[in-house]
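In this section we walk through a basic example: taking a raw amino acid sequence and producing a predicted 3D structure, encoded as discrete structure tokens. The instruction is simple. Fold the sequence below.
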Amino acid sequence: MTDIEIAQSFEMKPISEIAETAGIDEEYLEPYGNYKAKINLNILKKEGGDNKLVLVTAMTPTPAGEGKTTTTIGLADGLRKLGKNANVALREPSLGPVFGIKGGAAGGGWAQVVPMEDINLHFTGDMHAIGAANNLLAAMIDNHIYQGNSLNIDPRRITWKRCVDMNDRQLRYVTDGLGGRVNGVPREDGYDITVASEVMAILCLSESIRDLKERLSRVIVGYTYDEKPVTAGDLHAQGAMTALLTDAIKPNLVQTLEGTPAFVHGGPFANIAHGCNSVLATKVARRLGEYTVTEAGFGADLGAEKFLDIKCRYADMKPDAVVIVATVRALKMHGGVDKKNLAPENLAALERGLPNLLRHVDNIKNVFKLPSVVALNRFPTDTDAEIDMVIRRCKELGVNTVLSTVWADGGIGGVDLADEVIRLCEEESNEDFEYAYPLDIPVEQKIRYVAKHVYRASHVAFTKQAENAIEKLTALGYGDLPVCIAKTQYSFSDEAPLIGAPEGFVIHVQDIRISAGAGFIVVLTGSIMTMPGLPKKPAAELIDVSDDGVISGLF
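The resulting token sequence is shown next.
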């Protein structure tokens, strides 16, 4: 059975039952139909402590797949199999990858969140609200210029882009305002994908509606002719933007196939944004039960680093344990094996690929100083010798490896992993947790800290454009913000083909952008783009709907 067929075969519980399981009183539940709901933020006013927080991350991703979201869901189900009151907190999928190459983000096999089709498509409308708020601000910028430009905005220095939640390379660079005076002021423009919008980052880092509105007001949209920043607050846009987001800021509640409460909210990409679900969803989840299992996007060099250095700073939280997901197949790909030849045992390739996983493990253990476990997502073709090699090499770093079969077996396949997570949370301490860098050092130094200590680059090269941008944002008072490095997800370096655990490479910083509302500095490296394109054969070609409305082809 395909993922969507498995999901459609299950009889979901009414969302009121899931809320009761989670310990959410009816007064805080705002149903969106029978199987999904928003959670009123007043729930955070209730007394209650924070439960154990478990972060799930992964090795560097490959086309072979690692199963990070699937493992996250299966671990939460496994914890409940052991009698623990657990829930899961995930990001919302973006339509771009759903119709592109990556597919959906609702898990897979017997470890999924449902309703799978809703979550992967329009869900509760959060993505659309974020796009509308982003584009309202864009419209207000151009209207202000058209109506006389009292703020003296330089049309050539507008930094705010429009957005759309779709992979559409045609929109990366556009010229708009054409057609004569009544149709606006002609200028060069462009689109980002919605999940790369600063509005998305702001929504995911805000802790209240007031905080959301204040952050939106600080967004820098461009500069005047005399090089002074212009903000959304200067345009009086923050109130209307917040009005569009008053429902979107509320966390969404759904369920896993096994009835575990799942908070699915926010969806910034980890290769071009900070890659974590919302602070509010995590905080709501942590008020309920004993364990919250959450994930961060792509490999630990991207999602986990940003989760720890950005989200944890702002939300004043730290994980009690970290799970690093890997597969033998993916490790062999990092060892140079083609995707078509991954089934046969190949210890030599595995040996070559293992340093990728070990570097991620070493970073979590020795850079961030957190208790961790490797979850080896087992495939039928994995041999005992290959599995033993992974276990042995991770053990040399003082980290246990546990086999996971949640894709095939659901929560039962995650019980052993849940056992080890419980042990880490109860017997090991996160008190030595450290960020990768302090905030009170120059921006260039923060970037070098991540590049050298997390990626293991030998050098960081800045373009003149990046150097000028750093100088300017530092002069404006933004030099003490954390950095959000945008780079390829397929390598520790900024070059996708450089797989494994490369050393001696150079990180190329092309440009620097300030996300003053979100509260971080975006560092664009290599050839990273904030608007992806569709592949030669997009997933959209396989998606269809039957005459009676049943969707097929989602994965």
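Looking at the output, two observations stand out. The first strand starts at residue 29 and ends at 31. The chain has a mean pLDDT of 95. In the next section we compare this with other chains.
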